[in-house]
Amino acid sequence: MNKKYTIDLDFDRQHIWHPYTSMTQPLPVYPVSHTQDNRIFLATGEVLIDGMASWWSAIHGYGHPVLKNAAIEQVDKMSHVMFGGLTHAPAVELCKKLVAITPSKLQKVFLADSGSVCVEVAIKMALQYWLSQGITSKQKLMTPLKGYHGDTFAAMSVCDPINSMHSLYQGFLPEHVFVPAPVSQFSQTFDQQEAQRLTEYFAQHHQHIAAFIIEPIVQNAGGMNFYHPEYLKTVRKLCTEYDVLLICDEIATGFGRTGKLFAVEHADIEPDILCIGKALTGGMMTLSATLTTDKIAIGISEGEAGVLMHGPTFMGNPLACAVACASIDLLIEQDWQAQITHLNDALQALQRCSELEQVVEVRTLGAIGVVELDTVIDVAKIQAFFISQHVWIRPFGKLIYLMPPYISSEEDITMLANAIYDAIAGKHY
Asked: How far is the C-alpha of 145 from the C-alpha of 355, rounded, in Å?
């Protein structure tokens, strides 16, 4: 018997803490009754075109029958079992798929719960690797300004220390080495002075640096910065030259979002450690993975501890692994590159926003579209307008952006783009 729940908005306001929201002056929340394809159905009757893919994860849209069937079949067998001392087919099959589709040197897979946790695992891997080699001086990380890697403490410590949402934790977080953010844009000429500045940082700090962590090609929550592949190539070269590990955080960019299956492919490089999450399960449930090389895994395993010191309770959750397998198959077996090209063509509708004086820049890459304004946006005000236009878009800072499900039609993207243009032109922000 299905239990029917009601949405008590008064209780929600008084007791439920939503992400990045005040408990004394909370942002409005809109009650959702159900979702389907790329539509969000509100309990109040409105039907919204989703421009966010649930924070970039629901690449196939909602309620896809392939993913639903995978979940139904698995839940009848086993929804969860501890991964310590046990294993199961969904986890083995998922790791086979991940090893097959990621850069060839990445042969070892650690499954975790969320994006932030897989970054924590990556940082632990890097630090523990050097300790296992008897090198105790490499205890810091290096990373570009404007980066974002998650909300847990180690992940926060490598987010932008000044302009990020985590700057108030300064003094509590480990202090790392921050290099200038990439400046040369994806489609422009690479400024060799950026390579020179990076070289100077590596030369000065490498003896104390365990790893360089970076979001490949797109700095996401730090400002939607689409940077030149040569920057990433330079980082890879310097990491190799100065004996520093390279961690690539593909939690947001993985599984086709930038036009490549993984964004590192734009620069034709391989990291030492790779973080993936978000779209891993097609947005059905939380799961992440940290992949690394034989060298690092064996190095840690032959060290004093003998093991990687991490083990989440829900590690390798069978239900999540089964859905992730289905999501990867669904993506790979269809012409996902044509989907991304189609979406990128449709996202050019955002270029009309360049006519507006409040707009600093419009930029697109793969299935990402960004409109940058000259002032910080009032999220509550602009979202109320977007609801009235039957679209779901959640801006942050000075950015209004789209990362829609891959199944979105050209007509849907046009409606999203028109809503953004009208919001800016009508100053609904």
From this structure: 30
